[in-house]
Amino acid sequence: MASVFDRPYFFDAGLRFACRRCGTCCTGTPGIIRVSAEEIDEIAAYLDIPHQQFRRDFLRRRQATLSIGEHPDGRCFFYDQGCRIYPVRPRQCRAYPFWFNILRAESRWVREAQQCPGIGKGRLYTRADILLRVAQNMSDTASR
């Protein structure tokens, strides 16, 4: 069996993406926005609020990990006509749209592109760039 780095993918020629900061990935269907202890510290410092207050007001326990909470409509607590924590957003958010579940099949990528105006625009991410981002995001997720 070929390793995940040796097999062919629909994105072998690369994929274009440029975040438009539109909030499509921050709103809609609820999800899990995993955060590490380091990310919690960075975000709390960026917002200039005490660590414990940040944990109490903005985090939720989800599937044995901590996640940024969401409003009932699925909107991230930090999305209000733009991401309030964009410079220190979690690695999971930085990795979007190069998530394993989106890249599993070209049809999923195409479906995501119908929602995200940044897909197909901007910088060309090479196959190696994409696989590295997926691997980092998956290892981050596994270690939380």
Ordered list of secondary-structure elements with their pairings:
Elements: E1 15-17, H1 37-47, H2 51-58, E2 59-62, E3 65-68, H3 91-95, H4 100-103, H5 106-115, E4 123-125, H6 127-142
Antiparallel strand pairs: 1-4, 2-3
Explain how this protein is built.
- By secondary structure, this protein is of the alpha+beta class.
- It has one domain (15-142).
- Helix content is 38%, strand content 10%.
- It is built from 6 helices and 4 strands.
- The strands form 2 sheets. Strands 1-4 form a two-stranded antiparallel sheet.
- Strand 2 (59-62) and strand 3 (65-68) form a beta hairpin.
- It starts with 14 loop residues before the first strand and ends with a helix.
- The mean pLDDT is 90.
Give the gist of this structure.
With 144 residues, the chain is an alpha+beta fold.
Summary tags:
two-stranded antiparallel ribbon; 144 residues; alpha+beta; single chain; globular
Rounded to an integer in angstroms, the radius of gyration calculated over CA atoms is 16 Å
Distance between the termini: 28 Å
Number of strands: 4
* Number of domain units: 1
Query: What count of helical segments does DSSP give?
Result: 6
The order of strands across the largest sheet is 1-4
